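Dear support,

I submitted the protein below through the web form. The confirmation email said the job was done, but the results page showed an empty box. After a refresh the structure appeared. I'm attaching both so you can tell me whether what I see now is the final result or a partial one.
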Amino acid sequence: MKQFKTLLFAAALFFGAVNFSQAQSKVAHINTQDLVASMPEMKAAQSQMEQLGKTYEAEIKELATALQNKMKVYDAEAASQTDEENAKRVQEVQSMEQNIRQYQANAQKDMQQKELDLLKPITEKAKEAILKIARAQGFDYVLDSSQGGGVIMADGKDLLADVKKDLGF
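What the results page shows now:
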């Protein structure tokens, strides 16, 4: 009887340990910022954004130069013009300044939208690859270990190398 109780107790401990180990979730982590930054598509997107930024910057400089030139001409001619003509010119200069500010605001808005449009497929591809690798390796959770990603300790398996390999870089 005593051996039976010992055997029953050992069996209960064994099944309890098995259930406890099965209840444990497998957790991994990955630095998504490093992953996205190292993707070839990201380098191409950054190049496109730089080119677009340079284009807008050149156009804004061109508009500003035209405004400065017009202001110099108007200042030089101000004494020989009527008050009414000078008032029209001041209004024209103010209108040009406002148009330049509006153009700058639209350019910035356009650049932000372009960045979102370029980044969305890149981040989606990264997410799909992370999910594919995590599922293949049997992980239940993958935490983002990027700065500010909410991970305090990341001692689990880092999937960055495996995901990069799957993406081909």
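Response: this is the final, complete result; the empty box was a page-load delay. DSSP finds five helices and three strands in the chain.
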